[in-house]
Write the structure tokens for this entry.
Amino acid sequence: MIGRFAGRRYLAVAAGLGIVLAGCAKNAPQDTFQPAGSNARKIDDLQRTLFYISGVVGLIVFGFVGYAIWKFKDRGQDLPEQSHGNPKLEIMLTILPAIILAVVAVPSVAAVFELDKKDNDCVINVTGQQWWWEYDYVQGSTCGGVEITKSIVTSGELVIPADVDVLLRITSRDVIHSYWIPKLNGKRDAVPGRLHTLRMQADQPGLYTGQCTEFCGLSHARMRQAAVALTTADFQTWVTNQTAAYVAPEAGTLAATGEGTFQAQCSKCHQVNDLVTADGTPILAAPDLYVVSGAAPNLTNLMTRTAFAGWTFDLITDECRNKLWNADPADFGALYLQGVTPECYNEANLRTWLRNAPAMKPMYADPAKLAATGGKTRGMPNLNLTEDQIDQLIAYLLERK
Amino acid sequence: MAAVRPRSWRQLADITIHESAPVHVDDHSHDDHGPGGAHVTATGLSNNKMAMWLFLGSECLLFGGLISTYMLYRGRHGSGPGPAQVFDIPLTSVSSFVLLMSSLTMVLAVNAAKRDDDKNTRLWLMATALLGALFVGGQVYEFTAFYNEGLGFTTSLFSSSFFTLTGFHGVHVTLGVIMLIALAAIIGRGRISGDKAEVVEMVGLYWHFVDVVWVVIFTLVYLIPA
Amino acid sequence: MAIIERPSTAPALFGDAVARPPALVTPTAAMGVFKRPVSSTGWKSWVFTVDHKKLGIMYGVVAMFFFCVGGSEALLIRLQLAAPDNTVLSADLYNQMFTMHATTMVFLFVMPMAAAFANYFLPLQIGARDVAFPRINAVGFWLFLFGGLFLNSAWFLGGAADGGWFMYSPNSSPLFSPSHGIDFWVLGLQITGIASLVGAINLIVTIINMRAPGMSLMRMPVFTWMQLVVQFLLLFAMPVITVALFLLSFQRNFGAAFFDVDKGADPLLWQHLFWIFGHPEVYIIILPSFGIVSEVLPTFARKPLFGYKFVVFSGAAIGFVGWGVWAHHMFASGLGPVSVAVFSAATMLIAIPTGVKICNWTLTLWGGKLWFTTAMNFAISVIVLFTIGGLSGVTHASAPADTQQTDTYHIVAHFHYVIVGGAVMGLFAGFYYWWPKVFAKMLSERLGKWNFWLMFFGVNLTFAPMHILGMQGQPRRMVVWPTKLTGEGFFNLGFWNKVSTLGSFTIGLGVLLFLINVVLTTKKGAKAPLDPWDARTLEWMTASPPKEHNFDSIPTVHALDEFFHRKYEEVDTDAGPRLVKVKTGEEVLAIEEAAGDSNIHLPSPSYWPIVLAFAFPVIAYGVIFNLMVSVVGALILVIALFGWVLEPSVADETDYDPPGNGNGYDPPADGSGPTKELASIG
């Protein structure tokens, strides 16, 4: 009876492996087995080999164990010889895995050094903080041949030219985070006080999602990101748009009222480039006075992005998001550069956020509990805005393209 | 068929072993207690001493971790005073010398204990404790002076790691002093159970270890410039 | 329970007893205030015990309790992850839950459960009557219990630790984790750390020094060997985490700057310190289980462990190489390519001795006469499950692949296959194997089989899908996982998360069956014979349960698998030589008992271990809430230490129940009576 069970177990293990091989999700956005760039592909080649070798070794072991269970079960045979082993066999069984591992080790070590190369056609600074990523395109640099005429500071979506070797310079403003776009490369930790680099390259235009992968506190699960690859021409368009001069809302519109509300409520922390007060004084956000990390997302071009608040909540509807994520590489750029269009705009998320941000995404923002930080928050506090103010702000923000 | 339980591992070879027909060799001799009261062990080493050696091995890693932390952080004193500003090498050299001398008196105490000379054992134990206390006093003086020069525990990475490392060592010395005094008192009142010489030797092992650690700390922290 | 046990036949048989050298005069009289406890029944006989067997049982019971706590936390975690964007737990509670799940399972279940087996069986396996330092053994248990309770009391005092079990700085600093949770975590681990350290010293000395005559190192049972390696790992790993914990608590409680990045601190310092401890810790968790499996397989295969020496040396090799691979937990931390390459290669190296073990176990089965008891099933499942965990480990020994896999569910799958599939299943093999020896009752095999198969399928259902989840991009430590990232198709990540949750409850059911099995057999189980499995090692050559002094006479060891060779002899038959059972276990034991020692020394119970251990949580509460409380704790500590040193080495002869000379035995008049001088520190 036990033998029958053992046979079943062997079958179950084989079936289990079959399911593992056949049972993967289709089109998972962060599937490491579907690399979309040279770095990730290098890793994928390596790890597939490892999985195949491991699988074969595993099957051999299971085969032997299964056979032994079936063959040598107690059928009333004599007591076996009390043998203590066979040194020759042992040595062979020690050398064999050593050889396999040596075979694996060589390409691994080679890949370590290759993935550490610093050659690039574009450098972008990436800074993590609780619980979002900031990207900084340095003024005067070039990225895939496109000149960055004016500093671009954005968040959530890393926009890069496709088929260009990009080097990210990664650090953090508070705790350790880890930058990961699975389809483009492995992870690299963002460590405060240290600067790490990570190669990025995408073969095709498209959107590649990612997630902070070093546990970074309360809202770690809601610290996401994406890399958006565009053709060089589209990237040029994007850069031009990001560096364009500020366009104030038309006087008398709701958005114009919203600009005032924004100045009163939001601009302490959130920068909108070139924003000026009524008397023409430039407004500079000073998040370091209010937030532990000393930074808050730059909202100059909020509506060119598809999600907000640590790239967690969509600015566009599910339908539009699916269309964008699954767009053909040839059509992707045009679709992405539209930004948040009226027909795609996801009203509910932004409105709920403005009503009470900490209720939507857990943050340390309760004024009563900020003794340890001298009153500074981690994340955005509840601003207790009225519905009118929210309407005004939304109208204003929708023009930030 | 009674056989004497072997006193050392080497003697085991003398026991005849019959694999096919096991002959039961019993331990009926009950000579568990050696002349000094120590148990006969499989290796012939005393349990207590082996335990102390193992403990000291573990302590090496403890101080290893603390020293590594200090070495990493000793240059990071920010705007606060750095090692070069606060260290008073002559003073620390003198207290280091005092601690080294205490190892000598400890050796004398162990020797006296082995001769079963209670009077001198206590004398040298107390001398060792006194020298140890002097060292701790020197450390307290040093810490106070540093504090007055603006080097508090929380001032900088250098200060935190310096005070932690030397503080841990100081606590070890202090515990050693307490052990020495207690031991001298217990010997004086004749209350020691077990092998007296061995107990003194074990405290001695601990004491020498603490000394050796100080030699390393003194060299790395004070003598080699950051 | 008389402290000094005297087989009644002994004086008659051994007339030479009076001729032995006089025992030391013990200073009992001078110590009137410090009597030793003598209760032989009731709660006092447990609370003040220094008997390694009672302590082993207590370790086991408490560890099992924490297993249930940690298991419940796991089930809550799985419930939260069963559906995308689920709301069973808040983010805050979820973070505490996974932190405490890991901490509880590692420090309060697997380690102490291994300590339970070590405590109970090491002295028995090496033919000793107790450990080298019985009182230190007791203090270790109480420190573990109090430390564990202290750690978990955080739940009721403002929230448990929420930094993940490796508690990376600076996220663990008061700025980023303002609740007291991490303080409880740090101090609780310090307390259990002391327990591990003193336990390690005690067991190493016991193994090296207290072996029975003839028990050379290469005749020690593999479980003893693996425990020896583990205790050395503990000895050298605990001080490193101690340093890290001190640095962290000095920062959190006294304002030190160690992990303050603004002052120039390097957050990687914590990672190095933690993993220099943390990687040996992995082997501390797994090796005891390897030892158990190496005992169970030969017993039920009815042949010696294949390649005993290779298994022993590979265990020792794991112990050494385990120190050189810690940075493979940090491949994404930015160490630089040279370090990464070196640690990557070293990590692959450690797969070799592990592979040796798998091969040897398989070859132990080969050609055997396999008896599929529940214990055997669990042991075989360790081979299978640990192989899966080991092989997925090889996939991330390669550093570039690891940068994709680390901090995802693939890693979670890997270490759960290793820890649950390897360590926990191994411990369950130990439960079923040794239960009859400890409690003299047979656990129901029928319930046991159900228990096994539920756990076996449960483990695979829970953790196999996690390989897919991780490789397809689900990171660990996520309170929510949104629908938009689960992919398409029937086998999307949402589906696998549900399967995993289902599996976790299957495991839970299996564990529940074990508990039911325990309750039922305790009430009306069959009385176990002393050698129900026809086993091979010395611990079976004792009564069930073993007498307080373990062995009436200390056995002399002639061979590996001594007990087996006393039962079986090779007999020439017409068909060549055959192994024939010439004696039953009972007969072997009877021979031993007939030649029992007349004068057995056992340590007396003591009040001080529990008092000493109790001082530590008091000090720790003081550090968190009010330093005056710490002063009280320190006072208790000082009193306990002096009580410890000054208590008499034996209880007064007249204190015993029954009185010392009530057994028809008169102590010799020259004072050489049955006394036991305790070592001054033991």
Q: What stands out?
A: Chains A and B do not touch (no CB pair under 8 Å). The longest strand of chain A covers residues 122-129. The longest helix of chain A spans residues 38-71. DSSP finds ten helices and 14 strands in chain A.
